[in-house]
Amino acid sequence: MKALKSLIDLAKHKNHIDMKRGEEKYMNPHWHLDAIKAEVEEVREELRPNNMVHLEDELCDILWGWMILVEKLKESDYVGSHEAIISRALKKYEERILALKGNAEDHLIWKEVKARQKVMLEVEKGKNNEN
Question: Whole-model pTM?
Answer without folding.
Answer: 0.89
